Every structure is written in structure tokens, then in C-alpha cells.
Fold this protein.
Amino acid sequence: MVIRNLVIFAFVLFYFNSLKSQTSIPDTLKAARVAEPIHIDGDLKKRVWQSAFPITNFTQREPSEGGQPTEQTKVAVLYDTHNIYFGVWCFDSEPGRISAKEMSRDFNWSGDDDIEIMISPFNDNRNGYLFITNPNGAMADVWLGGDGGRFNKDWNGVWDVRVTRDQNGWYAEFAIPFSTLKFKRDSIQKWSVNFERNIRRKNEQVRWQGWSRSYSIDNISQSGKLEGIRDIKQKDRVEITPYITTGIERQYGFTNSAFKIGGEVNYDISPTMKLNFTLNTDFAQVESDRREVNLSRFSIYYPEKRQFFLEGSSYFDMSVSSARLFYSRRIGIEEESVIPIIGGGRLFGKIGKTSIGIMNLQTAALKGISSSNSSIIRIKQDIFEESGIGFISTQKFSNGKYSATYGTDFTYKTSKFLGDKNLMAGFSGAITLDNPGQESAKNKDNATYHFFLFYPNDIWSFNAGINSIQENFNPTLGFVNRSNFKRIYSELEFEPRFKKMPSYIRSFSFQLYDLEYFINDKTGLAETFSLDVRPFGINFSSGDYFGLNYEFTQDNPHEDFPLIDGVVIPKGQYNDNNFSAEFHSFDGRNLNAGVEFEAGSFYTGKRSNIEMYLNLSLNRHLSLGLDWSHNTLDLPQGDFKVNEFGGRVNYALNPKLNSSLFAQWNNEDDEVILNYRINWIPKIGSFFYFVVNQNIDTANNTLKLTRTTILAKLIWRFAL
């Protein structure tokens, strides 16, 4: 009843939101064909660009939704048989104030002037690619799925860009091989495309189409169209990327040398389907996980960083609320041990309106851990204009044991609710089986489900849902940090922009409520209730943010659980009140920082926490970052202080040669972890890494080198 009334109330409010057209004419861009490949150098005065058909009709999204841009932007498209080229003119009346701090591959573009190109060759309102550069020529790319609902920033495509500057602004020239993209095998192509430009000193964002604040550049359904492309080919259907790794490791006085070779073979079965084989898979160049001190009774989720699993990951993803049915870190990682992956294969892509992801990998035995075979099948079918229905199955065979997970999901999505608003609703569910066909207590109470409604829009944002994870739901290749519960949740946010606000205020931010209610699935007793409220938040025109927050949590652990340093929290009911304040400065500045302070009750005692970060860009080559978290616990068992430090130094000689030093330490592990990397891109698609990992024991106020790893890795791309 409560949820129903909230939904009705929210929809009444939504109805009175004004409806605005998000289409700017022309909404179609024509590509012009050229006879020969273009040598890209950022010079858009070349004669070849005079044959293009540019568009200039951009519209402000920020700070004045629907307003005219203060600077002109022009985009044109050329193509030949094997490549597509984008030329972007970013005119600027104050070129000396252009913001460009980053230069490295996969840079953080949120603080720089940039141009973002969204391409959806599928033209299906769901899947696409995002290519980004800044005035330094830094490169970043993203794989998009679910009409912006899913994205993979770690996808690395084969493409290139060059930039130039003059007294009138900056210019970018992109070259993207058709072999990097997935598209239908038609003689005449019609793609979705969109463009966004950010002018950071003004906090101005302009977009070609879909310029409402309710949409991002990721929302493919709000894009324009690209026409004129015909009779194109993918030049490279077979890609071979062998690698060689060599290095040494010293630990506990022993030194071991390492030499490893392997690689991958990629075969484009069709313009939309890719077959991938891997042998002796290696992740030596991957940066260390950021260690966190866990001050809760639930396990911590660590993100995947291994490139093999990141590429195409969206074809395999499925979650039932917080339960991830496929968590790729379950393959090749056992606690802190790296398990060798002997090899395997993947097939992923799209056939018509059906997305397919199939994977099978074999791991070796290591130190008492049995060899295992893991597989996943994920199929999703597009229905209606923006919706989908899907299925997933995962299996793991190890030492005579077999476990499986089966799940399904349905999402109804529209960007035309009440005219131009986003709305999503749907269901997902799954079961796990342990040695199917055999009698097992684990095969009872082994399901999860989730029903949800989501209205993610500017000014008003609302969601509500109910989900459950039963006691024996345990996806062997997935991740669950809490089970045996039913949960009801809802959230309502309000971010108004009043007409008569001071010029230094962009908008206010209020979280009217964010509540979760957990009930023990077995006993039916209340387990956890939390209510978060943001009574005041303000987004400044400068890009800074300040907010005040309140959180009430009632937790009823039915068992004692360990917290820290031998401290055990007894079972029982705890009512905690916490207040916090936070400030974040605009990250477009060369110096930006943030601080958050929280204090209140915490189980049997009290806790205060302060978190701070500082980022400094000295120039376009060198940047520094520091962060610190300090928890003070006042418990009957004593006072405890938990400090966590992190630091990073990035130096980029140019967009294809950069280095980084990452360091972390906390007083619970009493260990410094250093990770130094050099990343060189000798040619597009090929990589060289030099990595040094150093562990330093800091217990008893001493410094002791405990583990040193030095390695070099070369990955070379051959295209056939």
C-alpha cells in the first residue's frame, strides 16, 4: 500500500513536468565517401574535408537547457571502404583558457574540454560505442549497452585521433576502422550517432541531439542519424595478439624467474559476431586491488580489472538486484591467489535482435585448489523499441562436483513516458543448483527474484522495488554478499532549478528519502531498516557541491560477528543515527579536492569518519592524487583508529606513452603496496608494459621488503 501510494504521488508530480522537444534540425548527418584512406594529423584544412557535409546545430544541455551555445562546434564525416573519419571543429573565443590536463590512454575526461562521439552501427536504441578526446589528443573509449544502462569503460577499440590548436580553437580528426565496430551486413548503412562537447571553464555542455538533462550521451535512443555509408568492408577479420612476459619475483629470501608466452586469436564470424580463443591467459600487467578495511558484517565487492574479461563483458552480465549471477573474478582468482587459466574460448555479439555471449574456460590446479572448468551462456532478445528479455546459465565443474545457476530477466524501457521521460520496469530471477539430480539440502530455498520500477529523470528521480535472496542461493560463478532476506526499497530525489536563483547556484539537491527494509526470509523477523535523507544539497554554477545528510539504521544481527582486531559485535538490536557533511570542488580545476565528515552511533559504541582527497595537475604531462580515510571507533572493548592512505603519480610523455605510480597503506594490514607501470603503445592495438610491484611490511614501526616483482610484457597485434 505504501509503495503504491508513493508511485501514484510520484506520477502525479511527473505529469506536471514540462515536455520539450529533443530534436534539433537537421537531425541527420550525411557521410561523404573518399577514394583513398586519409592520413590523419588533426589538420582539418586539408582539401579532402571540403567535400564533407558538416552540421553545426548544437544545443546547450548545461547550464541553460535548450539555450544557444556560447562557442560554435562543427562536425563532419568522411569514409572509405575500410574506415570512417570524423572531423570536429571546436571553435573557442578564448583559446588560452582551454582546459586540457590529461594525456594518457583511457584518461578521466570529466575535468577537461572534450569532444565525445557516440556511434551505434546497430541502430537498435541499445548498443553502441563512445569515443572521446581532449585538446591534448588523449584517447578514451567506452562500449555502451542497454541504451546507456550498461557501459564498459575498459573496452579498448582499435582507432586513432590527432588534434591541433590555433587562435580560433582546437580541432580533432578521428579514424575508426570498420573492423573495430559491429554492424549489420547491408550494402546501405543507417547508423545512430550523437556528439557532445564540454567547455569546462564555463561548465558548459552542448549536444547535437537529445539535449535534455534527463538524458546522457549514452542514451542511444535520443541520437540523430548518420546516412550515406554504403558498400563498406571490415578489413581485418582475423586478429592474432600473442604476448611474451618475463620477469623475476623475490619473496622470503627466494628469487624465482618467470617466462610465459600465450595469446589470443579473434575471428570476426560476421560484422556483428566475434569468436575469441585464449591460451595461457596472463594478467601480469593488471594494477593491484585497492585494499579496504571492512567495518561491516558483509563481504566487499572488488571490480574486475583484467582486460580479457572486460572486453565484451556486457554480453555476459546479469544481476538480480545486488546478486551478480556472473562475477568473472571467480575464474582465475582464489582469495589472493592467482590461478593459471590454461585456455578457453568465447563467442559474443549480436545476430539481428539477439545478443549472445558464450564462454568456456579451463583453469589449472594450484596449491590444493583443484582444476576447474567454467562456462556461461547469456542470451538477450530485443523487444519493443527499447526493451529486452533474456536468459543466463552458468556451470562450474571441479573435482567431481558440479554447480549451476539459471536466471531470466525482463526489462521494459521507454524514453517517451509522458512525452520525453525515462521509465523502466521489470523482473529478474534465478536459482542455483548443487550437483543437479542429487538430493541436497542446498537445492532447497535456493532462489532469488527482483521486481522494480525506475523513473530516472532530471528534477525528479524515483525508484522502488522488492527482491529476495533465499538462504541457499549461492552462484558459484557469481557474487552475493548477503542472503536469507526479503527486501523492500524505495528512493525519491528532487533537484529543482528555480528561475530566480542567484547566478552562483545551478540547482538544489534533496533526497526526500532512501529506504531499505530487510526481513529474515526464514523467520519473517525484521533484520535491517535504513533511512537516508539529504535535507539540503546545492550544486554551484562553478561545479562545486555541498551537501548535508542524515542516516538512521536499525540492524538486528541474529548471530555474533567479528568486526576488527578481535572485537566481536553481539547479536541483538542496534539503532544508529549518523550525520554527515560533504564538499567536492569542481574537478575541471588544476587543483581540486573533496572532504566528507560523518559521525554518530555505531553498534555498541560510536564512530566518526573523515575522508579526503586531493588532485593536482601540474601540467598536461604530470598529475598527482592523494586520498585519506580515518575512522575512529569508540567501543566498550576499547578505542580503535583505522587509517587508509592512497597516492598516485601519473606522467604521460604523450598519448601513447605514460607511466604511473600507485601506493596504498592501512594500519590494519600494516603493509605498503607499491605498483609502478609504464605503458607504451608502439602501434594501435599493440602494448608494452613494464611493471614493478613492491610489498613493504610496516609492522612494529619497521620497513621490511617482503615481496618484489619486476616484469615486462609485450602484446603485439597482427591483423589478417
User: Anything to note?
Assistant: The first strand starts at residue 28 and ends at 30. The CA atoms of residues 277 and 345 lie 4 Å apart. Residues 298-483 form one domain.
